[in-house]
Every structure is written in C-alpha cells, then in structure tokens.
Amino acid sequence: MSLARRIIPCxxxxxxxxxKGVQFRGLRRQGDPAEFAARxxxxxxxxxxxxxxxxxxxxxxxFLETIRRVAxxxxxxxxxxxxxxxxxxxxxxxxxxxxxxxxxxxxVERPELxxxxxxxxxxxxxxxxxxxxxxxxxxQVWTRGAREPAGLDVVAWAIEGARQGxxxxxxxxxxxxxxxxxxxxxxxxxxxxxxxxxxxxSGGAETPQHFRExxxxxxxxxxxxxxxxxxxxxxxxGLKRFLAGCGVTVRQLSGAxxx
Length: 259
Known about the structure:
Helix content is about 35%, strand content about 25%. With about 260 residues, it is α/β, with parallel strands linked by helices.
C-alpha cells in the first residue's frame, strides 16, 4: 500500500499576522494565524506549517505567542520555524507547541545544527527548508528569505542535509512562489529521487491538477500551499476528493470524485 500524500497549508507570518506575496516580495497582511489554522484543521488539512518570515530578534516573543495560539487550535501536527539558529531557539518553539521545527539559513551556515536538533528531538521532528532558484546548471540554494545565494547546489545540499539528520525536506521553488503557475516538477523530482526522506513541494500551486502532477510526476510526499487555501480557491476537502479520484492516496477522505 502506498503512503498517503499530505496536504499542508502554510501560514507565513510577520510574527503575528499571516502575510503573502509573490516570489517572497510585496507582502500583504491576510489575517490571524490561529483562525486560519483552526479552519484548516476542520477542513481536513494533514499538517500546518507556520513560518516567521521576518525572523528578527525583536519579533521572537510575538512569534512564540503565535505558535502557542495556533497549537491550541489544532488537532494535527504543527511545524514552526523562522529565525531558529540554536538548540535553545528550537526548544522554545517546541515548548510553545510545535511538533516539528524547520531551519534554513542557520543550517546552511552550520550544517551541524541539523545533527544537534536530531539528537535533541529525533530526525522526524527536524525539517530542512530549502529555497531553490533555477540556474544554468540546475538549482541553487538561496537564504535569508530568498535574498542571498548560498553557493550550494540544491540536490547536493538536500542529500547532505538528510545525512546530517533532517527527517524531511521542505522544498520551495522561488521562481514559482506565489505565481500559481504550478509546482516545479523537475526540481521536486530531482530532490525526491536523491534523498531517502520525505519531500514537501512548495511554490506555484493553483489547481487540483497541480497537486496531482507534483505527487505523480514530482514524486513529492506532501504538497504545501498558502494563498489558494487562504482565499478558498481550492477547498481542502474537494482537493482530496479529486486526488483520490485520480488514484492518489490521501488521508481523511469522505468520498472521492472522478478525476
């Protein structure tokens, strides 16, 4: 039996409010994270990801309170991150209610952080976020909110991250982020085929067909989206019924429709 594919709404925040932009720019406020999270829980989401994309030190107490509020509204797993640079940062996020922590820039700067987090919480609770931009030779890793190139090949870094202790890869296509032009299937398939840990595809979703493609062609284990769920363009229950009708195994299904 194939493993069920997961549908994961993402709540990008500025510490206290959900925000959304295009290709990590032009951010606009959209609402309260706890209210969004509670709605997605009711609608059948498999997990929730909450990210502090501002991630500055003065926002940290606000973000921890946001995690507490979101966690209290959920019956499904919560992944949280943004600005996690040390074990103490991660402990604070977990203590606030997160089931998993995600790291990006700090892991690039010091890959040993992944091993430290895995030793503390278990690899299943460590998510390596990779922001990828297409280049002439493939895809390059970008850090600091997709503002700085890291000089790393995405596939090679995913392999190393998993070796260091990451139990999951959150793979975002910067080129597709917020464009609603579909997931980067080639990128997702390249990383999925190179690592032995689950890959969450992110960036570009608009239609149920995009999700089907990233599960079938991109070989993703989970798919993450934000604005299409925030604006209720693709209801989660309807998305799952569509995928089930196409032969994609999903969780918490109440009746499939023909693909």
